[in-house]
What does this fold into?
Amino acid sequence: MAAADTPNAASAPLPDYRVSRGTPASRIAGIGALIVLAALIAMPFWGTSASLRIGIELAYYLALAQLWNLLAGYTGMVSIGQQAYVGLGGYALLVLTVHLGLPAPSAILLAGLIAAALAVPTAALVFRLRGHYFAIGTWVVAEVWRLTAELVPAVGGGSGTSLPAAVVRTVAADRATREMAVYWIALGLCVFVIALVYLLLRSRHGLALTAIRDSERASQSLGVNNLRTKFMIYIVAAFATGMIGALIYLRKIRITPDSAFSVQDWTAFVIFIVVIGGIGTLEGPIIGVVLFFVLRELLADFGTIYLIVMGSIAVVVMLKAPRGVWGWVQDRFHLQLFPVSRRLNLPTKAD
Amino acid sequence: MDVAAILVQGALLGGLYAMFATGLSLSFGVMRLVNIAHGDLIVLGAYAALTTVNITGVHPLLSLVVVVPLMALFGYALQRGVLNGVLGGDLLPPVLVTFGFSIIIQNALLEVYSADARRLQSGWLETASVNLGGGLTAGVLPMLMFAAAVLVIGGLQALLYRTEMGRALRGASDDPVTAGTVGVNTRHIYGLAMAIALAVAAIAAVFLAMRATFDPSAGPVRLLFAFEAVIIGGMGNLWGTLVGGIILGIAQSIGAQFDAKAQILAGHLAFLLVLLLRPEGLFPRTRD
Amino acid sequence: MSAPPLLETKSLKAGYGDFPVLFGIDFSIAAGETVAIIGANGAGKTTFLRCLAGVVPAARAQVTFEGEPIAGLPSHRIAERGIAMVPEGRCLFRSLAVEENLLLGRYTRRPGPWTLDAIYDLFPVLKERRRQPGTTLSGGQQQMVAIGRALMANPRLLLCDEISLGLAPIVIKDLYAKLPRIRSGGTALVIVEQDINLALSVAERFYCFQEGRISLTGPASAAERERVVAAYLGV
It folds into this structure.
């Protein structure tokens, strides 16, 4: 694609240009994704109960990973406190259903909104910290919520509590239907999150995000309102994470402060997924979540060794291949399946 | 509720927190590295002290002779071997690598020592107390802890501001490239900085082990205390960190009056309050 | 030159990542000599000095100092061997006071005539401000600190990158008036300047850089001036 001759500014008109996004690979991937999605939606009819359970877990881990990636990989906000919103979502579900009598499915949506609302004052506080200190600050906030939950007897205090059967039945009357319903909600949330992140990146906000990540000062000088963009992304992420938290506890039924606000389950594993798969890409978390589950299956019997291995892989990847598996693929094959970047096409002389 | 006793108790506890914080502050000040595994390294030090005491049978305080050099060496190796590779502008690699180390250390300790809570017996030190006058008493161990904190910070200040190595450390943190042209081997200097940071952490670890029970998962909470002491006191100021630690200790002491579980929460809330009202901390030393 | 050069480069190529800046520089300087490097912005003068100081990597054999190949060595090793730099923009250590900046200059502990007292003798105004943070000094005084810091290393070769940058003419004049004293210690000087006359007034030889190559070199005598201007402008 040869660039057109530099036109004489005074006389010639601007060359005809097009901004294109799709590539042949992304078009194929798009069709492939639709097929896979159709199969996944239909899974309750052809899959086993065990595969549904794995599907639910895969779905919510993938969603959490895409959200963490949005924050850290795209906007440059490295948070190690997202477990706050998972826990808040779970406890919000508890309160909304048990104490306010709402049916579980709509409580999930509301739990997300509550998480988003609580993210506002949180952001006001933690945004006062920069970089590494921001990361630890988010962790402190998560701990505050965890300790608060431990002190409130109405939600079970330190030993936690369970969702009563009546609440669980608001999803569906019998067990099999409930499993299907929870599965579809999980799948729906995952697709929603991926779609959300994808659309955000395609929009002009997406350009702003990459600009902020690459250079805050430069993007600011170009008129990008850094603070407002980051704030918006943070709240949106909290909203989605809250809903996922509510879903997780609808699935698990039992909630305790330690599990709801667990750094390991909701941050360490998520970070591992994003880092191994490829940070800063939409395709990365998908690969990462598959690798994570495979690794977990392989090392399931080894308890702490499994975590040591996971931590070591994350460290080695970060040192040797910081862009993860997908980053390697991108470098080798120049592939991009989600068409989020823009290419400027100028007419060649032959046109 | 004896107000004076609460204040004294909290203030002395602050000495321990200041020691937790000093290592973190040093590595951030010199290398712009926030070590998320810092708390876990303190716990590692505590276990090293435990093993030393078990093998040799000496008093915990004497284990410092072994643990401090050991941890210093480990810090140097860690910095030169791994962490020097993640320094530089990018934020993610140091956070993720040290986070990974945090997980590795915690689980390695769990594997080797099991999840049982441990404590180092310090004999008469544990219960001895001193009459401060006016009906106030203070434990000897907490006072020793506080004295150690003052000595450590004082020593570090002297190192940073009166010695050539200190100048090199500060110069390298300002401008590593120019420091190189003046003859400073920045890779080595960073290694030394981490060695000092972990040496201080080792001292704090031994006191921690004597004062309270610890287990492999006790690290993250210590990291948060260290971090909070630094932020409350103001970044870039070691004496400020001591004040930050004291305020944190007092806040926790007050919280403990209401509910044992509220102790840590009270500390976090105090931190958030300072973040809200005076985000730069109480005694910040302006750098950039 | 009958004696072997103090420093010599052969076909030096260097750049930043994928961005090449120097395309084959042949340069030499004898012990105690003063050589000027002139050229427009972007010609590669600063990159060249940074290469010599070890800040920018180049292939090992392309630079020899006192007969030994030094390119590719880390900058602190090169400093130990006796090459000191006064960087473009001064680059004082912000957290350090004036005296502390100077003291850090003798980190390599190289022996020689330049002690703290000798520096204060050269630049008396610094002695009055020794405890002040470097950043509170005027541009000219900061430049003195930068030069003093480099001299404290008792270098055999001093690289001066645009020491006149941003300074008033009278300040520049005072600064350049000190150069003879620096030379009298036997130190070889590389003076990089954009001001041709200034550079040629103190140098014995000069090199003109243009777009990463040497476009002209020779003794700094008056007769060369027209050719120099032509080479500088690339006409």
Summary: The longest helix of chain B spans residues 3-31.
